[in-house]
Amino acid sequence: MERQYRYFERIIAYMEGNYMKDLSLEQLCAEVSLSTTYVNHILKSCTHRTFIHVLNEIRIKKACEYLEDDRLKVREIAEKTGFRSSKYFIKIFKDMQGVTPGQYKR
Q1: Alpha carbons 106 and 42: distance in angstroms, whole number
Q2: How far is CA 18 from CA 12, 81, 95, 99, 105, in A?
Q3: Helix (H) or strand (E) segment spanning residue 58
Q4: Helices 51-67 and 36-47 sit at what angle, rounded to 10 degrees?
Q5: Residue 82 contacts residue 20 (beta carbons within 8 Å)
Q6: Residue 90 Cα distances to 13, 49, 74, angstroms
Q7: In the chain, count of helices (H) and strands (E)?
Q8: Per residue of the chain (106 residues), what is the pLDDT tens digit?
Q9: Are 17 and 24 in contact (CB under 8 A)?
């Protein structure tokens, strides 16, 4: 279990350092030298979430920080946090925060 937690810390550290990129599970696995099956197992057992859900949580947390800056547009925040489209960013943000980025900003 201790080894699994050390892997978990490495996985999360990599995700937090690369959330702004078009990050895939395969890229992450190559970087931490673990199989996709094992990374999925670690994430599920430590967070009860999938890779994409954990990645989106990291991205939305950072987006909330960016929303404190009135100078940034929603489109810019979506790009800075690794979302391919503003529409998808708004959908995920609302799913996780219960409000749109524009509503959160107010």
Answers
A1: 37
A2: 10, 9, 22, 25, 24
A3: helix 51-67
A4: 60
A5: yes
A6: 25, 20, 8
A7: 7, 0
A8: 798 999 999 999 999 999 999 999 999 999 999 999 999 999 999 999 999 999 999 999 999 999 988 789 999 999 999 999 999 999 999 999 999 999 998 7
A9: no
Residue 98 DSSP symbol: S
Give the angle subtended at the CA of 60 by the CAs of 54 and 62, to the nearest 5°. 110
Q: Has this prediction a pTM greater than 0.85?
A: yes
Question: Tell me, what's the pLDDT at 1?
Answer: 72
Alpha carbons 77 and 65: distance in angstroms, whole number:
10
- pLDDT score, position 70: 77
Task: Give me the pLDDT at residue 105, please.
Answer: 80
Cβ atoms 5, 46 nearer than 8 A: yes
